[in-house]
Specification:
alpha+beta, Peptide Deformylase, globular, binds zinc ion
Length: about 130
C-alpha cells in the first residue's frame, strides 16, 4: 500500500503532465511502468490524484459508453460500467476520502482502478 511519499507525489506530478499532454481523462501508475496503486482521474471536472483507491460499492445498474485508453491508441470500445460507485482513497495530504461518484466520473475511476488490477478495456470483449 503506497504511502504519500515524495516519490509518490513526484510520480503523480509527472503523470499529470503526461495525461494532460495526451488529452486524457485518467492515467494509472502501471501505464507509466510503476507498479503502485496510484492513479489520476478526472472527477467532477477536476484532475484528482487517487492513492490506493478502492471501489467499495458499485451500482447494479450499468450503462454502456465508448472508452479509449492511452495504453491502446486508436482503440475505442463500448464498455459497461456501474453508473454509481462509492470510492475510498487517500488524497495527497494523506487523508482518507470517501466519495460517491456517478456517471462519467464513476466511469473514469472504474477504468483507472481496472488498470491497477491489470485489466484493460479489451478484456471486456468476449470472443
Ligand atoms: Zn486506460
Amino acid at each position: 500500500m503506497p504511502k504519500v511519499t515524495k516519490v509518490v507525489l513526484t510520480l503523480l506530478k509527472s503523470m499529470e503532465e503526461t495525461m494532460r499532454a495526451a488529452d486524457g481523462v485518467g492515467l494509472a501508475a502501471p501505464q507509466v511502468g510503476e507498479s503502485l496503486r496510484v492513479c489520476l482521474a478526472l472527477v467532477n471536472g477536476k484532475v484528482t490524484p487517487l492513492i490506493n483507491p478502492k471501489i467499495t460499492s458499485r451500482s447494479r445498474e450499468k450503462a454502456f459508453d465508448e472508452e479509449g485508453c492511452l495504453s491502446l491508441p486508436k482503440v475505442w470500445l463500448q464498455i459497461p460500467r456501474s453508473t454509481e460507485i462509492t470510492l475510498k482513497y487517500t488524497d495527497t495530504a494523506g487523508k482518507t476520502q470517501e466519495r460517491k461518484l456517478t456517471d462519467f466520473s464513476a466511469r473514469v475511476v472504474q477504468h483507472e482502478v481496472d488498470h491497477l488490477e491489470g485489466i484493460l478495456i479489451v478484456d471486456y470483449v468476449t470472443a
